[in-house]
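dumping these here so i dont lose them again. two proteins, back to back, each one seq then structure tokens. dont judge the mess
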Amino acid sequence: MSRLLPALTGLVLLLGCASEDPRLPQRMYDDAVKLSQQGKSMEAKTLMAQIATRYPETEAGRKAQKDLHLLEAFLRQDIQAGARQVRSIMKTTSNALRRYFAKKGEYPQDLNALLPDYLDKMPETPWGHPLFYRPFVGTPVTEVKDRRGVTTQKFNTKLDRFQLVCLGTDLAPQGKDLAADLVILDGEFVEGATLATLPTPQPNR
């Protein structure tokens, strides 16, 4: 009996440590509410979903399930507003590039050249990421015939086309919602947000 008692005591202690604190669901819910109040709707939604899934029979679980619907509605509004804002910023930048081209005859090598005559400040997304800009030569090499019919190659160096890209909140290709990519090619948004393959050889500038 003296040998069995310590073993039983150790098992009880182990089981006690393994059981969860009954206050945990409410603490998690309170944390989710704080995240929501801080404007971190996506993080709040993720935590609320965990609470609703793991603790459906608790008061915190029931409240989390109700709050999930509200958070999803807020997130949809945030995504729509963010997408409109990004498209507006990109279109403003694209228009500035077109005005620069009309005056200079080619696009600038970087967006800094648009300041301050064409833009007041460097464009960036609402979440503080830069836009990716890439000017290029549309037709690097053309063939020209002289009066004798001899064909020679002419190498063009004028930056007459451009891409303007937003890689979304994750700064990675593809993605969904606010992580989705947006691409403008020569002033127009491209459906499917695919990057154009540059014709070669591009000149070294």
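---- next one ----
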Amino acid sequence: MSETTMPVTEATSMDAIEFATYELAFHILPTVAEGEVPTAFATIKEHVTKNGGSIITEEAPARIDLAYDIEKYLEGKYRKFSSAYFGWVRFSAPASALEVITEEITSDVNVLRQLLLKLSKLEEQHTFKYHEAFESERQIETIDVAEAIAEAEAAGEKAAATDEVVAQKA
């Protein structure tokens, strides 16, 4: 057997650590007083930053009705919640920090549920603001289908008449 020499690996510097972009979506318990929600949000962001993450953008939590009840074991029993404060934070961090961040947020007594996602380059470029979209959805006007058809037909007749006049002039 021949003896081979392996090169000594260099210590990893902070410049060599790759950072990726992540989005942390979370629900804060509805039992948290409305005035205390900003403090709970600050605590969540602190879990990210103290473990090497850098906040890019965020959407502060606002109360929403949940699509289904979520159960959480609190104070010795399971409790069901039908609403929560929903918010999210986008941040960049090394992959090595994710386990600690997730563990700390999961163990936070004010957090009902959390989801951490790694973002693609396309997702990084296009931020979706849930609360803004939800508010604009409430401003959508609902109209009667028959009324809409009648308006479309009337507009079609006007367009046809305009086309005839243009054809006659040509």
